[in-house]
């Protein structure tokens, strides 16, 4: 499907089985199962309140699901049951990184520092949990150089290299979005989860984002994204899952999903005949 | 209506109105507390008398102060701001003076020669005051504030019970040296380690609390430790405190005990004086401060230090990057506590006496105030704040000339804490981010530029 | 059993006082998210106002009925401390609203230090004893209830009712609740936020002043540093009950009062405050938002 990947059958990187999440009496996710393949961009779409972000929060450990199993398989073949891990362990051990719907940068740190914080675990190990680092071990110095190189690599990719020494809070909105993605990539993830990466971007920024996401995929990181911007979803996704009221209503290629009547009904909340009527009214300039 | 070119009579009328209003408010606020004085007569019964003159002074100060603020000071400030905006000059100029650039070097050299300078100028007896009350006293607070800065300024965890670790350090030294006769140089690191362990023990259960809950629990722990020190009389001798704590020696080579054969003054053939011990202590605390600063600066550039600052900025983002926030908070708490412990054992060696009196909440508040007034995270700012706030209140003790102005009953010490409290309020009102509000980045690609305080966050707790 | 009931009554009396002070903490926290450290000292100012009014009235009008005396003491205390807290909010807290979060906390701590030292300077550092105001006691079997205990509980109950009515049934209370939920939105909808916050400070101070007056009546002594320990305990009560929750503050106050008197009675009087703080820590560890606090859903 996606160009540039090898012809072998793609294995599953993330498998969500019968996931349910209850908040008080509200069933936010109801018996949801889905899969994301390695080396693909999987999009999670659905109307507002469908439970997309909740699924994300379950996968990344910010919520503990009421029921169900979330399995992540790393390249090494090692499997992790994410619902049993703490949020930071999911990033640290299972190689899952995420961004947030409301951007969460370390706004008082510089752009470069943001990317160095993301390499915390690797640097901690290299610094012998601070002790060797304080003693000035050469291995730690090498690790620091490597971390700055890695940061520089992602700064260039995200087109932020000129702003490396500015405070992250000083960047314009679109650049903050890209920085958050670059920061997540600096943790060295195998699965990158993006919560509405294109929200609030103008069409031009949206295009640059598409290029960035594709190149992340082509370098071997699988992506899972929530998105409202259909131009992004249809353009770059290899696989789309549609949620409504916490349940899966459609699952397949972008083309398959686009033409699924259930999806159309879910998005517009009306039958086809009524849809035509509405369109006529719209053309008539009413509403 | 109002003439815009002249000195705005409408503004004047407003100033008068506000001034009168402030006077009325002040009259009712101070009527009972200032206008009436309660005191006990010869029969020990509580009686009262009036103090109308003093009340009049209070009311007048409030009214005139408000009048001047509204009528003159505020328009002046506004005009200046407007002019600045018009001329397009930014408040920050890039060119720093020679003194400004080399401020730290000057400060260090000054501190190194300070005891000798005071010996030269005011002689042995006079130096006691300058070395001890000013030098050592201020440096202890600098060290404590730098220690707390790791917890509050870097990691963004609001700790209202920091004095507990100071107490642990002080009592560790006092008890272990009186019961086991261990020396200062053995106990100094041990006290730090004990305080750090206490930090971990207390921190572990509570660090998952957020914000103000953490603040109140740390306050509670501070009080618990103080109350235990008061009531566990078998070991701590309660409110009587532990007296006769051994002095520190110069690494065991020279002693400052008067009777000892290796007494410092005797060995060098100097006239016996307690000033040598004070000067020695001054250098010890200076070294401890420098150690604290060095470790803080180094740690900030290490992954752990960056994780602390990241934690202050956004805890959830930290967790999403695989950072174990509990461990990160604990290390901040323990590191801060360790420096508190060092300072505590130094305090015990300096005083020769410890009692729970020295470890009340007010101390925690003063240390926290110094950290915030200095500008959270900035070592220089915090040191300046310590000099201003602690040195300022010490200066007040010296102002005996005020007795000539206010009469012989006037004791300036009484006003020390009152003025300290008011100073805290005033500094915060004018500089909410402290003396130094900007932050030095810990790494850079091309150039190091300070991050303006308006971007940094203050942590969730 | 009688002993237990006796301690229960003592605990309730003390708890009423803590509860009244705790409301001030919790309201201010709820509405502007700040720990008003000076609130304990407002309580102390209330006690001193009552003390001074007591001295003036008893010396000018000998034989004044106790009921009127008590009423005037508490009313004057409410007015004066209300005025103080209004001014403090205007001068020291309002300019910092929306600024750096620790700044108002530091000014509040500074204010607390300044207020207690102000009273120390103007009224002297010594404890101020006053004669017993009400000394009647009633005996039910082995249990002794003093009239002042009954008065404290009754006054607290009446105030709580008035207060509950204001918060839940009046436009002012609605404005307060709206401001607490979302200050910006409330302002957009025409709530005078500044005024609402001012009124909140005045109300909190008035309740603390009554508590201060009753504390004076109960113990018969006032001191400039009376603000700290009761203040910290009342704040502990507010947190224990769930800060921001008004019923929580009262519940927390009563609990702290009960813990204190029961611990003193059955274990050791020296460690009563240790017990209070330890229970606070334990409750928060297992229920991080306090007993009646809304569970905090982490918004990601």
UniProtKB/TrEMBL annotation, chain A:
GO BP: D-alanine transmembrane transport; L-alanine transport; L-isoleucine import across plasma membrane; L-valine import across plasma membrane
Domain of life the protein comes from: Bacteria
Ranges for domain ABC transporter: 14-270
UniProt entry keywords in alphabetical sequence: Amino-acid transport, ATP-binding, Nucleotide-binding, Transport
UniProt GO cellular component terms: plasma membrane
Annotated signal peptide: none
One function term, GO molecular function aspect: L-phenylalanine transmembrane transporter activity
Family affiliation: Belongs to the ABC transporter superfamily.
Protein name: General L-amino acid ABC transporter ATP-binding protein
Organism: Neorhizobium alkalisoli
From TrEMBL, chain B:
InterPro entries named among the record's database cross-references: ABC_transp_permease (IPR001851), LivHM_N (IPR021807), LivM-like (IPR043428)
Transmembrane segments: 20-40, 52-73, 103-122, 134-167, 179-201, 213-232, 276-297, 360-393, 413-430
Bilayer disposition of the protein: Multi-pass membrane protein
Pfam families cross-referenced by the UniProt entry: BPD_transp_2, DUF3382
GO CC terms in record: plasma membrane
Keyword field contains Transmembrane helix: yes
Entries under CDD domains matching the protein: TM_PBP1_LivM_like (cd06581)
Main location: membrane
UniProt key word Transmembrane: yes
Endpoints of the signal sequence: none
Single Gene Ontology MF annotation: branched-chain amino acid transmembrane transporter activity
Alphabetized UniProt keyword annotations: Cell membrane, Membrane, Transmembrane, Transmembrane helix
Compartments it resides in: Cell membrane
Ranges for domain High-affinity branched-chain amino acid transport system permease LivHM N-terminal: 15-114
PANTHER family (UniProt xref): HIGH-AFFINITY BRANCHED-CHAIN AMINO ACID TRANSPORT SYSTEM PERMEASE, HIGH-AFFINITY BRANCHED-CHAIN AMINO ACID TRANSPORT SYSTEM PERMEASE PROTEIN LIVM
Protein name (Swiss-Prot/TrEMBL): General L-amino acid ABC transporter membrane protein
Species assigned in the record: Neorhizobium alkalisoli
UniProtKB/TrEMBL annotation, chain C:
TM helices/strands, residue ranges: 12-35, 42-62, 68-88, 100-119, 150-167, 197-218, 238-262, 274-293
The protein's name: General L-amino acid ABC transporter membrane protein
Stored Pfam families: BPD_transp_2 (PF02653)
Keywords: Amino-acid transport, Cell inner membrane, Cell membrane, Membrane, Transmembrane, Transmembrane helix, Transport
Record's keyword annotation contains Transmembrane helix: yes
Location within or outside the cell: Cell membrane
Family membership noted in the UniProt record: Belongs to the binding-protein-dependent transport system permease family. LivHM subfamily.
Taxonomic lineage: Bacteria, Pseudomonadati, Pseudomonadota, Alphaproteobacteria, Hyphomicrobiales
CDD domains: TM_PBP1_LivH_like
Membrane topology per record: Multi-pass membrane protein
Gene Ontology cellular component annotations, sorted alphabetically: plasma membrane
InterPro entries registered for this protein in UniProt: ABC_transp_permease, BCAA_transport_permease
One GO biological process term: L-alanine transport
Primary residence: membrane
Alphabetized GO MF terms: L-isoleucine transmembrane transporter activity; L-leucine transmembrane transporter activity; L-phenylalanine transmembrane transporter activity; L-valine transmembrane transporter activity
């Amino acid at each position: 499907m996606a160009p540039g990947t090898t012809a072998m059958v793609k294995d599953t990187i993330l498998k969500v089985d019968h996931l349910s999440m209850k908040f008080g009496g509200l069933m936010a996710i109801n018996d949801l199962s889905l899969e994301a393949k390695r080396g693909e961009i999987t999009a999670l779409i659905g109307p507002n309140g469908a439970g997309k972000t909740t699924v994300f929060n379950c996968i990344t450990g910010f919520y503990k699901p009421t029921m169900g199993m979330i399995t992540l398989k790393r390249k090494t073949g090692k499997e992790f049951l994410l619902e049993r891990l703490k949020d930071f362990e999911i990033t640290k051990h299972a190689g899952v990184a995420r961004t947030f719907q409301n951007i969460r940068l370390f706004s008082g740190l510089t752009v470069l520092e943001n990317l160095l914080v993301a390499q915390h675990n690797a640097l901690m190990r290299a610094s012998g949990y601070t002790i060797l680092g304080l003693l000035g071990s050469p291995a730690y110095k090498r690790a620091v150089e490597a971390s700055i190189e890695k940061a520089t690599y992602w700064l260039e990719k995200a087109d932020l290299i000129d702003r490396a020494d500015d405070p992250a809070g000083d960047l314009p909105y679109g650049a903050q979005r890209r920085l958050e993605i670059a920061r997540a990539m600096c943790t060295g993830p195998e699965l990158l989860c993006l919560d509405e990466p294109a929200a609030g971007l103008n069409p031009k920024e949206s295009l640059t984002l598409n290029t960035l996401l594709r190149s992340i995929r082509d370098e071997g990181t699988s992506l899972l994204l929530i998105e409202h911007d259909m131009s992004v979803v249809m353009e770059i996704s290899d696989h789309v899952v549609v949620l409504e009221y916490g349940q899966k209503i459609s699952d397949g290629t972008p083309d398959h999903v686009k033409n699924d009547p259930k999806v159309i009904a879910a998005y517009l909340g009306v039958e086809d005949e009524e849809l035509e009527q509405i369109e006529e009214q719209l053309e008539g300039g009413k509403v | 209506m109002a003439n815009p070119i002249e000195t705005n009579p409408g503004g004047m009328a407003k100033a008068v109105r506000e001034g009168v209003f402030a006077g009325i408010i002040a009259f009712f606020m101070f009527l009972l507390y200032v206008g009436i004085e309660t005191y006990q007569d010869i029969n020990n019964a509580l009686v009262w008398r009036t103090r109308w003159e003093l009340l009049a002074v209070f009311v007048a100060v409030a009214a005139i102060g408000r009048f001047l603020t509204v009528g003159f000071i505020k328009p002046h400030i506004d005009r200046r701001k407007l002019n600045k905006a018009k001329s397009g000059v930014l408040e920050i100029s890039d060119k720093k003076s020679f003194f400004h650039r080399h401020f730290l070097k000057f400060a260090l050299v000054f501190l190194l020669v300070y005891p000798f300078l005071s010996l030269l100028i005011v002689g042995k007896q006079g130096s006691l005051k300058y070395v001890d009350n000013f030098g050592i006293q201020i440096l202890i607070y600098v060290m404590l504030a730098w220690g707390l800065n790791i917890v509050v300024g870097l990691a963004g965890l609001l700790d209202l019970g920091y004095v507990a670790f100071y107490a642990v350090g002080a009592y560790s030294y006092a008890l272990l040296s009186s019961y086991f006769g261990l020396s200062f140089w053995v106990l100094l690191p041990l006290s730090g380690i004990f305080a750090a362990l206490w930090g971990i023990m207390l921190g572990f259960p509570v660090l998952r609390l957020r914000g103000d809950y953490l603040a109140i629990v740390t306050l509670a722990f501070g009080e618990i430790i103080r109350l235990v020190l008061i009531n566990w009389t078998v070991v701590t001798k309660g409110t009587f405190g532990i007296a006769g704590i051994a002095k520190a020696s110069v690494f065991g080579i020279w002693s400052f005990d008067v009777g000892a054969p290796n007494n410092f003054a005797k060995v060098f053939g100097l006239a016996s004086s307690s000033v040598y011990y004070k000067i020695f202590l001054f250098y010890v605390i200076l070294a401890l401060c420098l150690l604290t600063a060095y470790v803080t600066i180094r740690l900030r550039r290490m992954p752990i230090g960056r994780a602390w600052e990241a934690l202050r900025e956004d805890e959830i983002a930290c967790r999403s990057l695989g950072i174990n926030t509990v461990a990160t908070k604990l290390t901040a708490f323990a590191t801060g506590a360790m420096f508190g412990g060092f300072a505590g054992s130094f305090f015990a060696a300096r005083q020769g006496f410890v009692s729970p009196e020295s470890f009340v909440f007010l101390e925690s508040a003063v240390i926290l105030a110094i950290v915030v007034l200095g500008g959270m995270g900035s070592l220089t700012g915090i040191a300046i704040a310590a000099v201003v706030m602690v040195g300022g209140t010490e200066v007040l003790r010296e102002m005996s000339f005020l007795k000539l102005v206010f009469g012989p009953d006037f004791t300036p010490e009484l006003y020390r804490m009152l003025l300290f409290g008011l100073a805290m309020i005033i500094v915060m009102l004018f500089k909410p981010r402290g003396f130094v509000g900007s932050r030095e980045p810990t790494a850079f690609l091309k150039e190091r530029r300070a991050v303006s305080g308006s971007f940094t966050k203050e942590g969730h707790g | 059993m009688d002993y237990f009931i006796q301690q229960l009554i003592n605990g309730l009396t003390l708890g009423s006082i803590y509860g009244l002070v705790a409301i001030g903490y919790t309201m201010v926290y709820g509405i502007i998210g700040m720990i008003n450290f000076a609130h304990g000292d407002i309580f102390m100012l209330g006690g001193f106002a009552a003390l001074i009014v007591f001295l003036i009235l008893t010396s000018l009008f000998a034989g004044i009925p106790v009921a009127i005396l008590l009423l005037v003491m508490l009313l004057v205390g409410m007015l004066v401390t209300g005025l103080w807290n209004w001014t403090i909010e205007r001068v020291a807290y309002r300019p910092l609203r929306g600024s750096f979060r620790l700044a108002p906390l530091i000014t509040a701590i500074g204010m607390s230090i300044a207020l207690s030292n102000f009273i120390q300077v103007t009224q002297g550092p010594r404890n101020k004893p006053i004669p017993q105001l009400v000394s009647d006691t009633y005996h039910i079997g082995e249990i002794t209830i003093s009239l002042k205990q009954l008065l404290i509980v009754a006054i607290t109950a009446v105030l709580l009712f008035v207060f509950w009515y204001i918060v839940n049934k009046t436009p002012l209370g609605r404005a307060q609740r709206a401001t607490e939920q979302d200050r910006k939105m409330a302002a957009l909808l025409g709530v005078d936020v500044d005024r609402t916050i001012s009124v909140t400070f005045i109300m909190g101070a008035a309740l603390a002043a009554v508590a201060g007056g009753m504390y004076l009546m109960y113990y018969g002594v006032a001191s400039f540093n009376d603000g700290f320990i009761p203040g910290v305990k009342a704040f502990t009560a507010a947190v224990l009950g769930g800060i921001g929750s008004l019923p929580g503050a009262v519940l927390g106050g009563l609990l702290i009062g009960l813990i204190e008197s029961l611990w003193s009675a059955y274990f050791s009087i020296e460690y009563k405050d240790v017990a209070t703080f330890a229970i606070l820590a334990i409750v928060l560890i297992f229920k991080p938002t306090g007993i009646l606090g809304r569970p905090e859903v982490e918004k990601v």
